[in-house]
Amino acid sequence: MWYDQFTSTDWVHDSIADAYRVKALRSRKDFWGRVIVLFDGAQGWLLSALVGFVVAVLAYVVNVSEATVFDFKDGYCVRGWLINEKVRHFVLTRGMWLADL
Fold it and tell me: Half-sphere exposure (CA, 13 Å, Cβ side) for 73?
């Protein structure tokens, strides 16, 4: 339901309308009816998982970009500009090439 600005919310009416909606969903006994009921019940969990995933990806991007930009003050490797100084030191002391990573 959509409410315009400056209108009051009728919680009793919303509760009754939602009960009718759920009753209509659960009255379908076929396969797709059960899938729709399952999806209707899982919407909150799916949205929470999606928001958590997006926040985790954003935190990862901020972490990696911050470390990379911070390491630019010491110079960077042309072949592996994303690799920080610790990884570069590990690679050079083991005699590996950046292409081997």
Answer: 3
| Domain locations along the chain | 11-100
Helix (H), strand (E) at residue 91: helix 85-93
Q: Where are the beta strands (DSSP E) in 2-72?
A: none
Mean pLDDT of the chain: 79
Q: Contact 15/1 with Cβ under 8 angstroms?
A: no
Q: In this model, does residue 90 exceed pLDDT 80? A: no
pTM metric for this prediction = 0.56
Angle formed by the axes of helices 11-26 and 31-71, nearest 10°: 110
